[in-house]
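User: Before I run my own analysis I want an independent prediction to cross-check against. Here's the chain; please return only the structure tokens and, at the end, one sentence I can use as a sanity check.
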Amino acid sequence: MLIACARQTKSSFVYNASGRRDPMVPLDVNRPVPNSTDELPKLLLEGIIWSRDEPVAVINDTILGEHGFIGGAEVIEIARDSVTFAYRSRQFVLSLE
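Assistant: Structure tokens:
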């Protein structure tokens, strides 16, 4: 888990958001968050252990089942040779090569 760091100076408080939204700025739902991108998370499908009842996939050195989360993406379905994800109301598929 990444936590933004802050340091106290004599005259003011300095917040380092590390590329994240400043929590002290009100959230305007009609305006995109600065520094946000619509890029898909960097996920590497390394393997699939498939069964009808409980298939699992190895993604970025992590073992996940259906409905697990990684990099902000949810594993929707694990097939014999691919994994379907949902990320920010979009779906994408990674296949074994």
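Sanity check: The longest strand covers residues 73-78.
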